[in-house]
């Protein structure tokens, strides 16, 4: 079974409510997953859900629906409730899960148009959410999360965060091969080697949502308040400050050019984070933050061709130039004499 309509119909027949008709559409935005908004009609009422399908090769698909419930039970992080999870469907369809549909606007589509006060409120709330995750959930070592007999574990566990981070970042750099940024691989490897020693080896591994970006947040239509944090498939046990540095890049440094705006938003992020966990943006954090952001940027660049594959030549050219500018600026910061 290959067509989306056939798959959705089979899933509704297996796990959905009684319905007289249904409609569906792909979830919008920069998404790396196969998911759909589905609306079913029954006795004059409309019911809306989200159906998410497993990729063709994904041994950890079950982790995401597990995490929805695991995180919801331990934190106040807003996320959709799991309605159905089928790891081995009866129908000829990929593994899937169904969540409630939380209505809201994608933050990526509105963030830059908000007033400065609204942006600051969002950054404060993001800090609270991140601090809640980091202060509540801890693990015994570093690595990707997996399930073992229904229990959350760290796969390929490492006791050394620096070694794990190096392997993770080398993987991102390797993914630049055969992309428009392939020429930047040697520089990326050099900068990683130059500054790797600033990354701590030990600490308390915390829950890291490794795809925490504006496109994975929903905000209330009458907000701005965050109504849901989405896409938990890229989750690991890692240094919590790695997660914080990522958010500084993806929500502030790669979005806004004005230095004063950046610092105001950064202060609000830190304030929110500090309400949930003991945090000081000290010298050790400032030392490792550029490398954490560099790693994140390279990961984003590796997905450039898939994200901008359908974009106009002008939009693609502008986006590529901006990525290269960010890369150059961070690489310069990581040079040995800095």
Brief account:
With about 350 residues, the chain is an alpha+beta fold.
Topology:
Elements: H1 4-15, E1 21-26, E2 34-42, E3 45-53, H2 63-74, E4 82-86, E5 96-100, E6 105-106, H3 116-136, E7 142-148, E8 151-158, H4 161-174, H5 185-195, E9 206-209, E10 217-219, E11 226-229, E12 235-238, H6 240-253, H7 259-274, H8 283-302, H9 304-307, H10 313-333
Antiparallel strand pairs: 1-2, 2-3, 3-5, 4-5, 6-10, 7-8, 7-12, 9-12, 10-11
Helix pairs in contact: 3-6, 3-7, 4-5, 4-8, 5-8, 6-8, 8-10
Task: Output the structural class.
Answer: alpha+beta
Low-confidence stretches: none
Which term fits the overall shape?
globular
Could you please say which CATH topology of the largest domain applies here? Aminoglycoside 3'-phosphotransferase, Chain: A, domain 2
CATH architecture of the largest domain: Alpha-Beta Complex
Q: What order do the SSEs take from the amino end to the carboxyl end, as H and E?
A: HEEEHEEEHEEHHEEEEHHHHH
Give the percentage of residues in beta strands: 15-25%
Strand tally is: 12
In helices, the fraction of residues equals 40-55%
| Number of DSSP helical runs | 10
Regarding CATH, which class of the largest domain? Alpha Beta
Distance between the termini: 56 Å
Descriptive terms for the model:
single chain, 338 residues, alpha+beta, Phosphorylase Kinase, domain 1, Aminoglycoside 3'-phosphotransferase, Chain: A, domain 2, 10 helices, 20% strand
């Amino acid at each position: 079974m290959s067509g989306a309509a056939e798959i959705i119909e089979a899933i509704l027949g297996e796990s959905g409510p009684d319905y007289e008709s249904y409609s569906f559409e792909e979830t919008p935005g920069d998404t790396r997953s196969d998911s759909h908004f589905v609306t079913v009609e029954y006795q004059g009422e409309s019911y809306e859900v989200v159906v998410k399908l497993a990729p063709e090769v994904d041994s950890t698909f079950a982790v995401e629906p597990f995490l929805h419930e695991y995180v919801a039970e331990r934190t106040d992080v807003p996320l959709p409730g799991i309605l159905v999870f089928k790891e081995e469907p009866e129908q000829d369809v990929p593994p899937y899960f169904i969540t409630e549909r939380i209505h809201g606007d994608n933050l990526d589509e509105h963030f830059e148009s908000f007033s400065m006060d609204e942006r600051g409120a969002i950054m404060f709330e993001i800090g609270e959410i991140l601090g809640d995750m980091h202060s509540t959930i801890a693990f015994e070592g570093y690595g990707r999360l997996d399930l073992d007999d229904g229990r959350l574990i760290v796969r390929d566990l490492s006791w050394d965060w620096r070694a794990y981070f190096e392997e993770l970042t080398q993987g991102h750099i390797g993914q630049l091969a055969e992309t428009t940024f392939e020429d930047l691989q040697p520089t990326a490897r050099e900068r990683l080697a130059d500054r790797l020693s600033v990354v701590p080896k030990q600490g308390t591994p915390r829950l890291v949502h490794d795809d925490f970006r504006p496109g994975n947040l929903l905000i209330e239509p009458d907000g701005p308040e965050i109504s849901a944090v989405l896409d938990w498939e890229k989750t690991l046990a890692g240094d919590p400050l790695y997660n914080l540095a990522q958010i500084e890049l993806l929500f502030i440094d790669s979005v806004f050019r004005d230095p004063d705006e950046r610092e105001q938003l950064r202060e609000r992020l830190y304030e929110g984070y500090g309400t949930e966990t003991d945090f000081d943006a000290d010298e050790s954090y400032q030392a490792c933050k550029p490398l954490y952001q560099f790693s994140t940027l390279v990961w984003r660049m590796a997905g450039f061709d898939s994200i901008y594959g359908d974009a106009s030549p002008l939009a693609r050219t502008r986006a590529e130039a901006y990525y290269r500018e960010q890369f150059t600026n961070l690489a310069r910061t990581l040079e040995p004499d800095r």
